[in-house]
């Protein structure tokens, strides 16, 4: 989604753009639940990431409206908030401390009793003791967004080449385009690398972009996430619901058509994308504690995707040490949320009229070595 969004914004500036991707939107975006939830996902050590998320969340309504209008397709953007719930006294105390931290940062949250939580979400378990509602958090259907982006790019005459970019080409000390896996060469003044978990040095041997000089690609690691999609005739929930069960976070994201996305595991297993019985069992076990009724739902899909993680959990957005090569990668859990901000930032850098994001500079890891997993 990040790459397609960037291409769309570049084309919107009147620039000539081509996209090389054998299966657009089939990676992390295809597996993702689509949470736009910088408030409910805040942590004590990642305030810079929170600020990026809030900035991009504020851009989502206009981004979605423009994309939907141009493509003629709906995105199922929902702005009903995230409900984070607690079970035991210890969980409730921790949630209360997190709420105080959110309020200190100036974030809008509402503290709810267990009864108030069940009033707005009747399907919650009776054992829920309390919760925090982040009313400005949102979510969207990433698969619909990808379809809309492809339609919008087609409408603008942007070629989407269903082929892998195999190797970077250079002219002197500058990126000059890419060579596709089928042997064709695309010349370009700027190359934007938006290959997710394959954007780092470890991804080159797994089908990533070869030919980049040593030390230019920053460290990116794949973080596996297993997700289930369940289905019911009518939506089971009206809000995105989160909680911590047995020490593991779990979330449930409803769609307007009755689909319920349940996720997600976090596994450091390199490029393994197998769906496992243990991973699915943990998801169902923990989600059942939150919403007992999910065990009656139909299983529509199981899938595993690879999130692109970085050492500091901040994305890689902007110019690399190699002139002409830019990165739009390393978004970990926030690729969908950060797509508008990333696309507009990269488009501005390419056009020469937009500011950089210093905290997301791809050159900040220049002295960090990474070995291929």
TrEMBL record:
GO molecular function, one term: flavin adenine dinucleotide binding
Catalytic activity: glycine + O2 + H2O = glyoxylate + H2O2 + NH4(+)
This protein's pathway: Cofactor biosynthesis; thiamine diphosphate biosynthesis
Gene3D superfamilies (UniProt xref): D-Amino Acid Oxidase, subunit A, domain 2, FAD/NAD(P)-binding domain
One of the GO biological process terms: thiamine biosynthetic process
Superkingdom of origin organism: Bacteria
Keywords for this protein: Oxidoreductase, Thiamine biosynthesis
SUPFAM superfamilies attached to this UniProt entry: FAD-linked reductases, C-terminal domain, FAD/NAD(P)-binding domain
Record-annotated FAD dependent oxidoreductase domain positions: 1-347
InterPro entries on file: FAD-dep_OxRdtase, FAD/NAD-bd_sf, Gly_oxidase_ThiO
EC number: 1.4.3.19
Cellular component aspect of the GO annotation: cytoplasm
Keyword Oxidoreductase: yes
Protein name stated in the entry: glycine oxidase
């Amino acid at each position: 989604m990040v790459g397609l969004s960037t291409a769309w914004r570049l084309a919107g500036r009147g620039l000539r753009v081509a996209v090389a991707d054998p299966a657009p939107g089939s990676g992390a975006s295809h597996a993702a639940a689509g949470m736009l939830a910088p408030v409910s996902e805040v942590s004590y050590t990642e305030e810079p990431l929170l600020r990026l998320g809030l900035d991009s969340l504020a851009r989502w309504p206009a981004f979605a409206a423009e994309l939907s209008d141009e493509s003629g397709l709906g995105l199922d953007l929902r702005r009903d908030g995230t409900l984070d719930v607690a079970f035991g006294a210890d969980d409730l105390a921790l949630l209360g401390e997190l709420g105080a931290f959110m309020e200190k940062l100036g974030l809008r949250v509402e503290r709810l009793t267990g009864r108030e939580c069940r009033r707005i979400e009747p399907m919650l378990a009776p054992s829920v003791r309390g919760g925090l509602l982040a009313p400005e958090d949102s979510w969207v259907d990433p698969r619909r967004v990808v379809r809309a982006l492809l339609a919008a790019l087609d409408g603008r005459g942007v070629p989407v080449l269903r082929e892998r970019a195999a190797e970077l080409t250079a002219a002197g000390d500058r990126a000059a385009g890419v060579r596709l896996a089928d042997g064709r060469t695309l010349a370009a003044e700027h190359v934007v690398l938006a290959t997710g978990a394959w954007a780092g040095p470890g991804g080159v041997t797994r089908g990533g972009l070869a030919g980049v000089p040593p030390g230019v690609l920053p460290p990116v690691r794949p973080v596996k996430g297993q997700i289930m999609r369940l289905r019911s005739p009518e939506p089971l929930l009206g809000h995105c619901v989160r909680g911590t069960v047995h020490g593991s976070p779990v979330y449930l994201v409803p769609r307007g058509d009755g689909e319920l996305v349940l996720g997600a595991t976090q596994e450091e297993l390199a490029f393994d994308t197998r769906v496992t019985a243990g991973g699915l069992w943990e998801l169902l076990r923990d989600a059942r504690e939150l919403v007992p009724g999910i065990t009656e739902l139909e299983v529509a899909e199981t899938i595993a995707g690879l999130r692109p993680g970085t050492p500091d959990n901040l994305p890689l957005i902007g110019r690399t040490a190699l002139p002409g090569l830019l990165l739009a990668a390393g978004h970990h859990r926030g690729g969908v949320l950060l797509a508008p901000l990333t696309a507009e930032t990269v488009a501005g850098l390419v056009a020469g009229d937009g500011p950089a994001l210093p905290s997301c500079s791809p050159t900040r890891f220049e002295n960090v070595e990474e070995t291929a997993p």
